[in-house]
Write a structure and sequence with these properties.
The chain is about 40% helix and about 5% strand. It is mainly alpha-helical.
């Protein structure tokens, strides 16, 4: 049900023939007859400076919506909100697909680079390790020996497989 329109001064309602109604910038509705009785550019209700706009079928839809019933407004805006939501969701999915594809390519590049580094390390000649006089292993005789202390690096000739957590 639409909001009833009435003059906020004399409380008359629209009828045929009817005076035109105006909406003030301060939010009051005043009929043409009462508007002529008041001061120009001043609200008859709150006495503040204001502008007036005649209400008609050509009035801005945003202003017309002030006089629509809540159920009508809900239906109207529900449709608009649904369209906006679908539009935004479509674009979010498109962006997500782009980032997923980019992530897959980066993971493939990382895997190749890791395999290449592993192959290069396996080709290196074994390095001689010399212990420094004050290294941690000379201070702590119970420490674990380095994996290269035997003169050989631990390389497997199988490609590494990164775990799913990487």
């Amino acid at each position: 049900m639409a909001v009833p329109v009435f003059c906020n001064v004399c409380f008359c309602e629209p009828r045929k023939p009817t005076p035109r109604f105006s909406l003030t910038s301060c939010g009051h509705v005043i009929c043409e007859i009462c508007l002529q009785k008041g001061k120009k550019d001043e609200c008859l209700i709150c006495r503040t400076p204001c502008r007036t706009l005649f209400l008609s079928k050509q009035t801005n839809p945003d202003i017309q919506s002030l006089f629509m019933g809540i159920d009508t407004l809900c239906k109207k805006y529900s449709k608009e909100i649904t369209q906006i939501s679908e539009f935004q969701e479509k674009h979010r999915k498109h962006l997500l697909a782009y980032h997923r594809q980019k992530t897959v390519k980066l993971e493939e590049s990382l895997k190749k680079a890791t395999q290449q580094m592993h192959q290069i390390q396996c080709m290196k000649p074994p390095e001689q390790t010399t212990q420094l006089p004050f290294s941690s292993t000379s201070r702590n005789p119970l420490s674990n020996p380095s994996r290269k202390q035997n003169g050989y690096s631990s390389c497997s000739f199988h490609p590494s497989h990164p775990s799913t957590s990487e």
